[in-house]
């Protein structure tokens, strides 16, 4: 019995040693311990195809770690190069991720598939393209890899992956090997949903081309390479956004300049009516979130939005293209509900004036921007600067300076702006806040205003002076009055700027909302012999 027990113990011990060796091979291969792994590969009884809990094998780890010698040793010992783990990754996928061309070649020689696909349809060439290692891509293409294969999740190609990772040399190489330059990724058809909140929900629709990805990332050299190979500079995504618009939107001004010089259409506007000039004006002054934080970081590029704007205008870009509808929010939780004037009919000049961006205003006026071209609500650039519709959630212009706004107003008036122009109010919809009005109701009214042009029921409403008075912008009031603003002008509710300063119908909703402004207006009215009456309705 003792001899039998000893024999069983020896047998079990031997089995345990084999199991331990298998586990150790996986462990050391994963850890990158080259010397230990090389010793274990040829150990008696070691299964080189043993798998870990997720199905990974030693050769997958060796490939991921770039260990060519270990990969060759494992292949020689019988490792199956076609195995995949539970995530659908194989050894050639891992080698391609790091762009290890010699390992890729060794795996291909041992029977790996150059067109192997993960569950999401990712091919080794896509992974290699992202790595930027051209010799890895060459090895795969020489073995028959499909250069235009697309993965199934976003229907993106290897060229798109290279562009999205700013791999300029890889972009050039793939383009030279026949990659489709103008393929689009998958267009997302989002299911319509009914929600209680009365605001549109803007979801990414996909559909980018390689040039879109390069523009989004600000890879100017990628863009140059794609354009040189024949990519369409005016390709559109589902929202009709071109690479030029996308580069500007992401504040990649050097890249935008490449597209301008490369023949991009300078007047091609997107679904929302944003032209390249409008987009440049929009990002010239950094927008803020609703909480006052920056919605974007400053651009690190050499060029500025102003310089690209000039470049486009010098080449004949139209400075007067108007928005067709409200653009998407830059920051959904914080940016929503603000800047309601920047909707249908808004021009680049109105956008720049809103922010007190005097330099951009001067540029636009130099190239014949129409000084009084209004939005659908009749808001002119001068009104936008003065404070009309300067809501509680302003994001474009919250960081403007008094000096910048005064300089802007001076430029506009010298260009012939009408200081007594009225915007319009549709009596069926209204505009502005009513004392006691709920936030939800106000949001609903804004949504309605954004959806239609004022009808025949629209009547003249506020002037620039009303806007300045509503917010207590005393310096603006003095400027406007000095240039002929009518202190007795009445809005659609019969309120004068003085009434507005007292809080009638405004966002503050209380008497004497701005006492200093009230005193200023009363003194100006008395100086001009205008009777100072009681406030007309609150």
What do you see in this structure?
The longest helix is centred in the first third of the chain and has 30 residues, at 2-31. Among the domains are: 25-30 and 39-146, Serine Threonine Protein Phosphatase 5, Tetratricopeptide repeat (Alpha Horseshoe), CATH 1.25.40.20; 419-427 and 458-537, Ankyrin repeat-containing domain (Serine Threonine Protein Phosphatase 5, Tetratricopeptide repeat). Helix 15 (276-284) packs antiparallel against helix 16. It has 538 residues and is mostly helical. Mean pLDDT is 88; it is low at 1-19, 431-444 and 446-453. The protein contains 26 helices and 2 strands.
Summarize the structure.
The chain has helices at 2-31, 34-41, 58-64, 68-76, 91-97, 101-109, 124-131, 134-142, 158-164, 168-176, 210-217, 220-229, 243-249, 253-261, 276-284, 305-314, 332-335, 348-354, 358-366, 381-386, 402-414, 439-450, 464-470, 474-482, 497-501, 515-527, and strands spanning 424-426, 458-460. The protein is mainly α and 538 residues long. The chain has a two-stranded antiparallel sheet.
